[in-house]
Write a structure and sequence with these properties.
The chain is an alpha+beta fold. 18% of the residues lie in helices and 39% in strands. The model is unreliable at 1-38, 222-236, 490-499 and 787-792 (pLDDT under 50).
Length: 892
């Protein structure tokens, strides 16, 4: 052992000797080529340094560089005393190298005169960049690289610049999955530029490298749950299986033939982020100490790599005691109730933090305080004891003092008047600060449709000495007026509208200002800013149908309370396709239905049960005039007039997060509509019974009698709340019923329900409601479904529809909101309430796409697949494509 270590000891002793290092340094200096020299010249005594005064400095080799600048960069000046040889000369050379302008630098002694010295700075200038060329790649790729490398004409071509450019190019191709991408740089003189050079980058990107396999070692090694199965068998469930762990790697995927929507390239930054998702998942399951032990990237072939992750799960932890300290406003029992964490629950620090503050799905401890003015409230959880598998938490509460609202400002509104915004703001000066009121204000402002919800911001300025907080709401105007081209087309099979496109052109101004209507300067192009709504529309499919509508809404009647007033008027004509000229010439018989009407309604926001409720009441009048028209109504000879005077009452609750793409909330509406029971009132007052059997249709329906109920509900549920883009599940159901006061009089031929396809919804006609059911022909599910067996398709008095829709946003930009969807829905109409069967319905499923453009409204593309046959229509296609522009796919 001693003999073995002796040579090593002697070698270590020699290393410690100064003589040894002097010999090594001399050897390196003699054998290593130098591109610069520290100090050269006759008379320089390297063994005996001496101090000299610089009498003069000259520069040689400077052609394009400024001589005075070179002297300045060196730090040497005439009259300065320097040690020759010495560190000052060496430092001057270092300073010149830092400028990265030269390829060779030397400082030499030109002459000694006593105690004075004349120095010469010799340089070799680096070439300047004239142009760059990229070989081996496409022009489009070269253009992209040119933007990223950003090499400008005149830049000094030194090695550092070349290395940086090579690194940028390699990073560019690495992001695209090309790992083996050698880059060679060559230079050639530029004839059009003195001292200019052209850099030529020769790039061989090779094959794109894909991830062939991913292995997660250690996942599934710990069993965290026991389940009792039949016959007393007990099965253990792993904490996180390898398959689940791999699914968490959202941006790092194996190459699969079926995964066309996700690339399988390796990106180091994304891979590191994905690893944290695995750890976060373990932490949620109680594995507080889980960690990634190693990650290995290895090549399987030239264009395939593998990834191996090694995970250490450690043991699972549970909450034991959670105590609050520092709370005086609320008792610990009240805070425990809001926190909702029990002894023995799986330890999840993220859940604890969420329950303490900013819980997106419910109330939290922080909101309890901030809704009562405690703006500076903090709740900090601290682990006080960690035992084998249990953890004690102490929540340290800092309540602070109560704040009241000071000044409230709004910035960013260039078109909308201040009073329109302030009336929606719920935080009032002098009131206690309330975080929930701020959140609700943002929702109300978004519901107006005037502002970009993505750009909402709230600036909070605390005035601690006064106990006040100033609030500034920041908004961003967005286009909200619409020139809307609407239309519907499907597999129409009903009446004279078979196979036709129904189109509509409407002008909708949702931020109108009537009080500025007669002010010339306010027209740019229309008077706006007061939040009133004005719409004018015309709908037609040629000679068969024309409709004209106009409406005006004042949402805040009087300007002090959210009470709305709406006026509307309409007129429509439907024919058999024969023009008036043809009728006058006697070449064809024109069948015509004319409808004129108007409505007035009031709406009021309620405070109970909560202020999401809105009540609306109104009066509607319509006049129907039939001329040989027997297509849709039960008038015996197709001639006559009818009047419809009805009152409408609606109670609705809308708590959705956004009017265009709601992510959460619900919308529930109940509507009751009815006319006076004229016949019953007349018989009661006159004491005379009516001979119903001998009444003509004109007498029977001169004043229409009916009552009508409709209920609709839909809920929006986010399925992945913590993601930037949420899957949203839209669940909806609806029911409608049209009744009569007197069975002998018969049911009204107006106000009925029609179902099927994607038809133009919402046009008035006879008050009918057209409900869409994708996958079927237009109106084909309206009872009776065998429309060929009955001349008149008069609609149905009973309808039900329900379904689910899964949505995913492709773009949440308010200038172009786009989302994809898949749906399952079912519905049916019945001729009698006694025949109603909610489980005997027509079903369909399919996929779709919605595109919302502010100027044109909603564009819809759907492919529906019917799941049930319609016996009376055996030739109906199994699948149907539906296209819609700016239409509502039925109210139910």
């Amino acid at each position: 052992m001693t003999k073995t270590l002796a040579p090593v000891c002697r070698w270590m002793k020699n290393i410690a000797s100064p003589r040894y290092w002097l010999v090594v340094l001399l050897f390196i200096q003699l054998t290593t080529p130098c591109s610069s020299q520290t100090l050269i010249g006759e008379g320089v005594d390297y063994a005996n340094p001496k101090k000299y005064r610089i009498a003069g400095i000259t520069v040689s080799g400077a052609v394009y560089s400024d001589v005075q600048a070179i002297k300045l960069f060196s730090g040497l000046i005439e009259g300065q005393e320097v040690m020759i040889p010495g560190d000052q000369i060496t430092e001057a050379i270092r300073k010149l190298w830092k400028q990265r302008l030269f390829s060779d630098i030397s400082i030499s002694v030109a002459e000694f005169r006593g105690d004075e010295v004349y120095l010469t700075i010799g340089i070799k200038e680096s070439s300047r960049l004239f142009a760059t060329k990229y070989e081996g790649i496409k022009k489009s790729e070269a253009d992209n690289i040119l933007e990223k490398v950003d090499l400008r004409t005149g830049t000094v071509c030194n090695q550092n610049m070349k290395n940086n450019a090579i690194a940028v190019i390699k990073d560019y191709y690495t992001e695209k999955g090309f790992f083996n991408c050698p880059v060679i740089v060559t230079e050639e003189p530029a004839p059009l530029m003195e001292n200019g050079t052209t850099l030529i980058f020769t790039i061989d990107r090779g094959d794109k490298v894909k991830i062939q396999e991913i292995t997660v070692e250690g996942a599934g090694g710990v069993m965290i749950e026991k389940r009792t199965l039949p016959f007393g068998v007990r099965k253990m469930k792993p904490a996180l299986s390898e398959a689940r762990a791999k699914r968490l790697l959202k941006n790092t995927k194996e190459k699969k033939w079926w995964r066309f929507w996700k690339q399988s390239k390796y990106m180091e930054k994304e891979f590191k982020e994905d690893q944290q998702k695995i750890i976060a998942k373990y932490n949620k399951e109680g594995f507080r100490n889980a960690k990634i032990m190693s990650d290995t990237l290895y090549f399987i072939s030239q264009d395939r790599v593998g990834i191996r992750l090694k995970v250490e799960e450690d043991k699972k932890f549970y909450f034991r005691n959670v105590d609050f300290v520092g709370n005086t406003k609320y008792r610990t029992t009240a805070l425990d109730s809001v926190l909702g964490i029990q002894k023995g629950d799986v330890y999840n620090l993220e859940l604890l933090q969420t329950r303490l503050s900013f819980n997106p799905s419910g109330r939290d401890v922080s909101s309890l305080y901030t809704d009562d003015g405690y703006l500076s409230f903090q709740a900090i959880p601290v682990e006080t004891l960690v035992e084998p598998d249990s953890i004690d938490i102490e929540v340290r509460v800092y309540e602070g003092k109560q704040y009241r609202v000071g000044r409230v400002n709004v910035v960013g509104n260039s078109k909308t008047n201040d009073h329109v915004i302030y009336r929606e703001i719920r935080t009032r000066p002098g009131e206690l600060f309330n975080r929930s009121d701020i959140i609700r204000t943002q929702r109300e402002l978004a519901a107006l449709g005037y502002f970009n919800p993505e750009a909402f911001d709230i600036q909070i300025n605390q005035r601690n000495e006064e106990g006040l907080v100033d609030l500034t709401y920041v908004v961003e105007e967005k286009p909200n007026d619409q020139i809307q081209l609407s239309g519907g087309w499907g597999g129409g099979q009903v009446g004279s509208n078979r196979g036709r496109v129904v189109g509509s052109l409407s002008l909708s101004f949702s931020n109108f200002s009537m009080r500025n209507f007669f002010k010339k300067e306010a027209w740019s192009p229309l008077p706006t800013g007061d939040g009133q709504r004005l719409s004018i529309s015309a709908t037609s499919n040629g000679v068969f149908f024309q409709s004209y509508n106009a409406s005006f809404t004042e949402p805040w009647l009087g300007g002090k309370k959210p009470t709305s007033l709406t006026f509307s008027a309409w007129a429509s004509t439907q024919t058999n396709g024969v023009t008036k000229k043809q009728d006058e010439d006697g070449t064809a018989n024109r069948q015509e239905l004319n409808i004129k009407g108007g409505a007035i309604s009031f709406g009021k926001r309620l405070q109970w049960p909560d202020d999401y409720f809105v009540f609306q009441g109104g009066l509607t009048y319509q006049n129907y005039s039939l001329n040989d028209y027997q297509v849709l109504f039960d008038f015996a000879d197709g001639n006559g007039k009818a009047n419809n005077l009805a009152g409408t009452f609606t109670l609705s609750r809308n708590s959705t997060s956004d009017p265009i793409y709601p992510k959460w909330g619900s919308q529930i509406t109940f509507t009751a509509k009815g006319t006076p029971p004229y016949r019953l009132l007349g018989e009661a007052l006159l004491g005379k019974e009516t001979d119903y059997e001998n009444l003509t249709d004109q007498q029977r329906f001169r004043w229409v009698e009916f009552y009508k109920f409709k209920f609709t509900a839909q809920w929006f549920t986010p399925l992945n709340k913590h993601k930037e883009r949420n899957f949203v599940l839209n669940t909806k159901a609806g029911f409608g019923f049209l009744g009569t006061y007197n069975k002998e009089l018969g049911e009204s031929p107006f106000e009925r329900y029609y179902l099927g396809g994607v038809f133009l919804s919402g046009f008035l006609l006879d008050g009918r409601e057209i409900v869409n059911l994708r996958g079927y022909d237009d109106l084909s599910l309206t009872a009776p479904t065998d429309i060929r067996a009955k001349v008149n398709n008069v609609g149905a008095p009973v309808i039900a529809k329900y379904g689910v829709e899964l949505r995913y946003p492709l773009s949440t930009n308010p200038q172009a909101t786009i989302y994809a969807l898949t749906f399952l829905e079912a519905g049916k109409t019945w001729e009698n309430l006694s025949d109603f069967d909610p489980f005997n319905v027509y079903r369909s499923g399919g996929v779709g796409l919605r595109i919302f453009l502010p100027m044109f409204g909603l564009l819809g593309f759907d492919y529906g697949w019917r799941l049930d046959d319609v016996p009376a229509q055996p030739l109906m296609a199994r699948g149907t494509f539906h296209f819609s522009i700016g239409m509502n796919l039925g109210e139910l």
